[in-house]
User: What shape does this take?
Amino acid sequence: MNIAYWIVAGPLALFYIYAGTLKVIRSRDQLRPMMSWVDRIPLPALRALGTVEILGATGLILPPLTGIALPLAPTAATGFLLLQAGAIIVHLTGEDRRIALNVGLTTTAAVTIWLATRL
Assistant: This one.
């Protein structure tokens, strides 16, 4: 199960490190082409969201890697599942109705929760 966890959680964590870093360091104008919803939330909330994504990715990686605080891994994955549920709602209530990526991330987070509980 350990290898399966890393196969699923590793790319999930990399995605959130990348996406979170973009939200923290880029301007709205730079984010708008790939995230049309950025104008719907305040900039501090966008920065906070990016920070939460980076911290969540850290929660997927460090506990299983170090063997310390293992319950943080399924907790981080649960946070990503809830985050994506909210993202799907934001996409469906706005002009951008493309949710395929969000559904894929939700599924990956759910599998990660299952695998993390078996570490």
In short: The mean pLDDT is 95.
